[in-house]
Design a protein that fits this description.
The protein has helices spanning about 1-15, 110-120, 160-165, 220, 230-245; strands at about 55-60, 85, 90-95, 100, 125-130, 135-140, 145-150, 155, 175-185, 185-190, 205, 210-215. It has about 250 residues and is α+β, with helices and mostly antiparallel strands. It has a 5-stranded mixed β-sheet with strand order 7-6-12-9-10, with helices on one face. The protein has a 3-stranded antiparallel β-sheet with strand order 2-1-5, with helices on one face. Strands 3-4 form a two-stranded antiparallel ribbon. α1 (about 1-15) packs antiparallel against α5. The longest helix has 18 residues, at about 230-245.
């Protein structure tokens, strides 16, 4: 009987070791006893303005029926990445015929209006469409689909980025997420707790193009517990108990 109790206790702890507490899986948690049902956080303002280093896709069309050097690039089968323009350190881009034009600190709508005005002396009723194409984020480690992801808009938060990688695995450490950021010649690393609602106040809630996000594994996966055949072990132990009881 004593041996049976030891085996049962062993099975109990073995089962517990294969489980991950829900508190380690849930995002942006609050203290349920203190937090109200609705909470508002003030974080960093969203930057929708054109800045040096941005990549902007520009598509130009005209009311003229005849295609021009401008409107030829509006073909739909062209990859937007090949039709993009990089904003230089002075905040300007260089367009055909117009030459260098400053777009710094303008919204996409304001920049489109400015380019249309400059094109009006060359084209009849020009129409300009712009969008950001330079948001690139790398997700590594304990995510279901690691890789490099490209976005057609400038601002994206860290939870949205992880969503594109189909979420963190059950054995990913959501409390100690590493974010590597490169700003010019300066590189920095920061640790983020995705399980705390303090995330909304963090300056790293909104990620930047070029950020690298690494989800480290929990300790139990480091020790290989995810590869242990628990079902087989429990089946052998249960069968052994049945045989032991039968002969006794």
């Amino acid at each position: 009987m004593k041996n049976q109790n030891i085996i049962i206790i062993f099975i109990y702890f073995l089962t517990l070791s294969s489980c991950v507490p829900t508190s380690r899986l849930a995002y942006v948690q609050s203290d349920a006893d203190k937090a109200p049902h609705e909470m508002v956080f003030s974080g960093q303002p969203i930057d929708e303005l054109i800045r040096p280093g941005d990549e902007i896709y520009v598509r130009i069309s005209s009311a003229d029926e005849q295609a021009t050097a401008f409107t030829a690039e509006a073909q739909r089968n062209i990859n937007p990445n090949f039709m993009s323009y990089t904003v230089n350190k002075e905040g300007a881009v260089k367009l055909p015929f117009i030459g260098r034009i400053s777009l710094q600190n303008l919204t996409l709508e304001q920049a489109s209006d400015k380019v249309e005005a400059a094109l009006s002396q060359y084209l009849y009723l020009p129409s300009v469409y712009m969008r950001f194409i330079n948001t690139r984020v790398t997700l590594l480690g304990e995510v279901n689909v690691p890789g490099v992801y490209m976005f057609d808009y400038k601002n994206i938060n860290i939870l949205q980025a992880i969503g594109y990688a189909r979420d963190v695995t059950d054995f990913g450490n959501r409390r100690n997420v590493l974010l590597i950021r490169e700003d010019g010649i300066q590189r920095s690393k920061h640790y983020i707790d995705l399980t705390s609602d303090e995330l909304f106040k963090s300056e790293f809630y909104t990620i930047q193009s070029g950020d690298i996000i690494y989800i480290e594994p929990l300790g139990r996966k480091v020790w290989g517990l995810t590869t242990v055949p628990y079902n087989l072990i429990l089946t052998v132990i249960t069968t052994g108990l049945v045989v032991f009881n039968f002969f006794n």
